[in-house]
Amino acid sequence: MANIQASAPMTEAPGRERLLALPRMLWRDKFAFASAVVLLVVLLCAIFGPALLGDVASSQNLRGRNSPPFDLARGWLYVLGGDSLGRPMLARVIVAARNTMMVAAGAVASALLVGTALGLIAGYRGKNTSQVIMRLGDVIMSFPSLLIAVVVLYILGSSVANMILVLAITRVPIYMRTTRAEVMEIRERMFVQAAIAMGASPGRVILRHILPVVAPTLITIATLDFAFVMLAESALSFLGIGIQPPEITWGLMVSQGRPYLTSAWWLAFWPGLAIILTTLSLNLLSNWMRIAFDPAQRWRLEARSSGNG
Amino acid sequence: MADYLLSVRNLSVRFHTARGAVDAVRSVSWHVDRGETLAILGESGSGKSVSASAIMNLLDIPPAEIVSGEILFGGQDLLKLSREERRRINGKRIAMIFQDPLGHLNPVYPVGWQIAEIMTAHGSKPEDARRRCLELLTRVGIPDVDNALRKYPHQFSGGQRQRLMIAMALALKPDLLIADEPTTALDVTIQAEVLSLLRELQAETGMGLVLITHDLGVVADIADRVVVMNHGEIVEEGSPRDIYHNPKHAYTKKLIAAAPGKGEIPAGEPEADVLLDVRSLSKGYGDFTALKEASFTLRRGQTIAIVGESGSGKSTLARSILRLEPADSGEARWKGRDLLKMPPRELLAARRQMHMIFQDPTQSLNPRMSVYQIISEGWDIHGLMPDRAARRDRVTELLVQVGLSPEHALRYPHQFSGGQRQRIAIARALALEPELIICDEAVSALDVSIQAQVITLLGRLREELGISFLFIAHDLGVVRDFADTVIVMKAGEIVEQGPTLQIFDEPRHPYTQRLLAAALDPDPDVQEGRRQAAATPS
Q1: A210/chain B closest Cα distance in angstroms
Q2: Where are the domains of chain A?
Q3: What is the nearest CA distance from A223 to chain B, expressed in angstroms?
Q4: Considering only residues 13 to 52 of chain A, which have any Cβ-Cβ distance to chain B shorter than 8 Å?
Q5: A29: which residues sit within 8 A by CB, 6+ positions away?
Q6: Nearest-5° angle of CA A149, CA A152, CA A155?
């Protein structure tokens, strides 16, 4: 009936073919491709930025205080303007990428990992295990997350690692609850039952059959969470218990630029734009991933190629 | 010619999909008269429901487009009327009932309210509507009418819900009733009741009835005239008797040949060693007893059919044997060892020797795994066939064995039709070379002709490989051709078991007799004889 897709000869190694197919599918979705480029740039900035521009970003130049953007008189580094101490905005945005990415990616990744693992166990195992894990999640959720952060950071001292820890703890319950709910539904599905009847071990059932179905939902949540974590980090920094100057993050830059919004809008605008672009790109890319990794949807990305020739 | 109650002329409907235009029906013409029952017979995808949807204005346009044709009802072309005018006809003069009554009743309103709503929406007073409601529910045979009006849809059984739908459809005394697979989701005994209710109501009101179905038995039971559809076209038209005895078109011939329950009944298998011995297996959910003291013995090479209506515990029995659900008491000995108390390692070995094929292949195949991965998963689980080349050869071999082609291995389940998916599931079951295959309604979700193909395939595998089958079904016809022994279950209990021939020729238990009497025969003459026999008080 609907098997229109060209059949590949069976002798071809499926793994290698898929590796080649992915970039092709990425190129087909222009938005996703642009997002991937943006994220790559952000990643490169985070890796090489501090080494290349670290000194420039922290050297003050009082004559260039709040110098307006798009003015090349002071050199290309001032193309995005200068901040309240005359430091070039461009260099600062690039350098801040590292701390921001480390905190946001670290917190989201560890929350995703821990939350998913606990959720899978809670959803698949019996009632008692599930109860213990879920009540633990409730305890975390019933605490205002900012309060936990203040207490923990006050005791442990503020550092990037501690920021990641605190932010991850407060986000874990979200992944845990979503995963558990989905697992409870999926494990009743026929193909899971079929695998169990064949003798598959719980580990196999969870990793091969349940996780791939839950993953798209979790990745979508994670990308949305990315923006939230960046802003939460800036709030903590604003309170003086997060990243401390002269270290910089985008969130911190936004909050430092806020008093100058009426006189020098670019202080808060450029780091804000960086946050928006990054999260938007992540969102678009996760959307693409959801389609690309679903065999039933994949033709949407493949069909266009044959259509355009 | 113009005096038909409803006539559809040269109707063509096209669907615009992402993969180009599909002609759902091509130049279809049929008509129905007052007091007449027209059956539209066809398999899934034949376009049998499309013309009914066009009549009721239920087609979603844009994706669908009515390319040509007219639908004349009382001299008016429905397709030329305004939305407002059609709404006045729909529900009031033409009513429709559907396959899945639960999906078409609103779960948050009591049924009395929902039936009354139809009447008030078309301008009745609330008191009148309520009185008519009571009348209708009494007529369609709902017990305890006064309380029933206040109940919600989920509190009724499947058969009662279909009666409610019929009551709703009849609320405004329509001239024409369109029934789209009205009994497909129901058990045989309930199906017979609903069909006879429809027949009586038609005789009382003189309405026209259009019945859309895939089931030859339903056609034989109720239709005055039948239209056979295939791939969007009408291939044959005539009285059920003519169609059944002298089918002219090749497709009709194929359809009739595929109808189950006409082949020779297999003779009982000679004594072989016992493979599975189930002794007083019981299982309850809270207060509800799903399975009560079930016992039977399966010998090597034997096929046992477990027959029962929904809720009879037949699936619970299979699931308990496979330990997908823990049983409460009893034992199931697999080659002498109790499956229910086996340690995990031994259970793993036992699970290699028995396999299950599920009812709905759409759900029993992981949508994210390719056919190759699905078939070879069993080897991964049991650590067999480490050599990749050997695996590929074996997958190819299995695909050919179940009637698919080798290049299907790299595709994904959604790219196949229902029958092909069930073949994949069978290939997966065969991969581990099992000694027992448990089929849980393995062919119920398939079209008749596909059903026949799958049964033939299973029969061939049984001969070639000597596999034993535990075949769970609600359809007696299928069982008759395929099984050596039949077990009849009701409300969690085995009420009768014996060789197939004996069960069909001399059923002892009253329930078995009722089940056999309620089954519809595709031959209109046989079916009429049965109907008369049932009508005379026994």
Answers
A1: 10
A2: 93-300
A3: 23
A4: 14
A5: A288, A291, A301
A6: 140
Q: How far is B338 from chain A (nearest CA, A)?
A: 16
Q: What is the pLDDT of residues A231-259, one digit of tens each?
A: 788 778 777 777 777 788 888 888 888 88
Contact A190 B370 (CB under 8 A): no
Residue among B5, B55, B45 at smallest CA distance from B22: B45
Nearest to B231 by CA among B255, B258, B256: B255
| Token pair belonging to A239 | 């309170």
Instruction: Flag whether the pTM goes above 0.80.
Output: no
Distance, CA of A218 to CA of A216 (rounded, Å): 5
Judge whether B231 is closer than 8 Å to chain A, CB to CB: no
What are the extents of the domains in chain B?
274-521
Among A189, A195, A212, whose Cβ lies nearest the Cβ of B363? A189
Residues in chain A, pLDDT under 50: 1-13, 304-309
**What is the C-alpha to C-alpha distance for residues B102 and B382, in angstroms, rounded to an integer?**
42
Instruction: Say if the ipTM goes beyond 0.85.
Output: no
Mapped onto helix, strand or coil, the DSSP state of residue B72 is strand
CB pairs under 8 A between A and B: 94
Residue B389's CB is within 10 A of a number of other CB atoms, namely: 8
Task: Tally the C-alpha atoms within 13 A of residue B134's C-alpha that lie toward its C-beta.
Answer: 8
- Say if residues B255 and B216 touch (Cβ distance below 8 Å): yes
CATH homologous superfamily, domain A93-300: MetI-like (1.10.3720.10)
Q: Which residues of A touch B22 (CB under 8 A)?
A: none
In the block, tokens 């303007």 appear at A81
Q: Please identify, in words, the CATH class of the domain defined by B274-521.
A: alpha beta
pLDDT of residue A113: 93
